[in-house]
């Protein structure tokens, strides 16, 4: 899983700062996350839930609304209507990048914002709210009577919400009061999941009831039990994400095949710039992470290059043995190969790969011994044993797909 920057322009022309949580393959679909009014894209709930969804195969864009975090701009319009428009702009930017969101997730006022924006995003099939208010004017309660009075009297005033200062205008208040969420929810036309904690002291549970009643089917409600409004406990964020991922699975697009005909044969490793050694690898239509252990300066976030080399030998051995067993009609139920690697100073060759092969099935000792011999004929084994030439060049040329089919052909030749 990789986190990367994803900035885009709002309809009003200011720049919005976002982060993409890129899941490991296969990618089940894409989601857009809207943070709570006082939180920002880097708030605990936004980060934890987005990353938990990414671990489950759902990529997520979380971004700062205007006036928040990395999206602070003097010309930014701070309003609920602007937040809804910026969600539409975020979805359009995702779609242009090949990541059209099928799922919207919104926390607190962000939940109200996704309900307002969903009708304008054609790709969205499912909407999940977390501790969302039914009436967006609920924010006025958090501002307080004195704060509202100061804004009304002065045209704008600075108020403190969740320990942070916000300068709010009379137009912001009028915008909140003018929203008709009930009509929007009734016309949503998407599957809806309402998640709320019964003892939420910021946005009462009655808000979830009103959202649920206003919505048409398909709709679902899940209690967040004793979670707090900001979902500050990691276990609550993980639970919320797991429920959303499971519920939304039926509304996600089908997972595309990872290997397609004519696909380029290159394996590509590119720095993520997260940590000293972490790289994102693209191979066979999927993505994975490689890294080094913490003991040598890495983050321990993925297999090492030697792990991947050993994995190639283990995979090739297992595939070759399966091809042989099936070709000979042997009753082999399962094959498992484990590969280790060590350096032997002062010996030639210095690299030693140890291979342990377990074969389950009703085969006799002669058949088992023959399969062990066949293991030495797997193409990767022979490549490592004989060595290979490596040609290095500058640039980024596309590779032909020949290498993709070559391994399967070599296995067939070896066991023929």
Structural class, from secondary structure content? alpha/beta
Give the tally of β-strands.
17
Tell me the overall shape: elongated
**The named CATH superfamily of the largest domain:** Alpha/Beta hydrolase fold, catalytic domain
Radius of gyration: 27 Å
CATH structural fold name of the largest domain: Rossmann fold
Helix fraction bin: 25-40%
- Rounded mean pLDDT is 86
User: What is the overall number of helices?
Assistant: 12
Q: Which architecture of the largest domain does the CATH hierarchy give at level 2?
A: 3-Layer(aba) Sandwich
Q: Which strand-content bin applies to the residues?
A: 15-25%
Structural account:
There is one protein chain. α1 crosses α8 (234-248) and α2 (80-96) packs across α3. The protein folds into 2 domains: 2-135 and 179-251, Alpha/Beta hydrolase fold, catalytic domain (Rossmann fold); 304-415, K homology (KH) domain (GMP Synthetase, Chain A, domain 3). 36% of the residues lie in helices and 23% in strands. By secondary structure, it is an alpha/beta fold. The protein has 12 helices and 17 strands. The two termini are 40 Å apart. It has an 8-stranded mixed β-sheet with strand order 1-4-6-5-7-8-11-12, sandwiched between helices. The protein has a 3-stranded antiparallel β-sheet with strand order 13-14-15, with no helix packed on it. The chain has a two-stranded antiparallel ribbon with strand order 2-3. It is elongated and about 90 Å long. The protein has helices spanning 44-55, 80-96, 109-117, 139-154, 170-177, 181-186, 205-214, 234-248, 305-328, 365-375, 379-386, 402-415; strands spanning 2-5, 8-9, 15-16, 18-22, 29-34, 58-63, 103-107, 126-130, 156-161, 164-169, 191-196, 219-223, 268-271, 279-283, 286-290, 332-343, 351-361. The model has no long low-confidence stretch (mean pLDDT 86).
């Amino acid at each position: 899983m990789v986190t990367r920057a994803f900035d885009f322009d709002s309809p009003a022309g200011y720049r919005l700062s976002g982060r993409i949580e890129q899941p490991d393959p296969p990618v089940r679909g894409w989601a857009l996350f809207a943070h709570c009014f006082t939180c920002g894209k880097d708030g605990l709930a936004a980060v934890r839930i987005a990353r938990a969804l990414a671990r489950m195969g759902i990529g997520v864009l979380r971004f700062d609304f205007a006036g928040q975090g990395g999206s602070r701009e003097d010309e930014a319009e701070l309003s609920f209507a602007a937040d809804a428009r910026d969600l539409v702009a975020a979805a359009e930017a995702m779609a242009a990048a090949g990541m059209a969101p099928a799922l919207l997730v919104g926390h607190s006022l962000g939940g109200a914002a996704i309900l307002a924006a969903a009708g304008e995003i054609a790709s969205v099939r499912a909407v999940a709210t977390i501790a969302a208010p039914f009436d967006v004017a609920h924010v006025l309660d958090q501002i307080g009577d004195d704060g509202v009075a100061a804004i009304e009297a002065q045209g704008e005033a600075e108020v403190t919400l969740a320990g942070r200062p916000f300068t709010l205008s009379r137009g912001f208040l009028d915008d909140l009061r003018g929203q008709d969420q009930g009509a929007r929810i009734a016309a949503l036309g998407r599957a809806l999941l309402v998640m709320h904690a019964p003892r939420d002291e910021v946005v009462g549970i009655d808000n979830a009831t009103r959202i649920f009643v206003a919505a048409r089917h398909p709709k679902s409600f899940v209690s967040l039990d004793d979670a707090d409004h900001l979902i500050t406990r990691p276990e609550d964020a993980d639970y919320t994400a797991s429920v959303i991922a499971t519920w939304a699975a039926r509304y996600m697009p089908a997972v595309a095949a990872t290997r397609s005909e004519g696909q380029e044969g290159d394996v590509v490793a590119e720095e993520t710039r997260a940590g000293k050694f972490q790289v994102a690898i693209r191979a066979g239509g999927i993505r994975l992470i490689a890294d080094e252990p913490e003991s040598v300066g890495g983050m321990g976030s993925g297999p090492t290059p030697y792990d991947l080399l050993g994995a190639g030998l283990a995979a090739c051995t297992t595939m070759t043995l399966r091809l042989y067993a099936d070709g000979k009609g042997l009753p082999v139920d399962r094959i498992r190969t484990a590969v280790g690697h060590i350096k032997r100073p002062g010996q030639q060759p210095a690299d030693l790969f140890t291979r342990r092969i377990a074969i389950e099935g009703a085969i006799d000792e002669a058949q088992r011994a023959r399969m062990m011999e066949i293991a030495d004929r797997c193409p990767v084994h022979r490549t490592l044993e004989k060595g290979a030439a490596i040609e290095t060049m500058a640039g980024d040329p596309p590779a032909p797909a020949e290498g993709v089919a070559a391994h399967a052909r070599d296995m067939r030749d070896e066991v023929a």
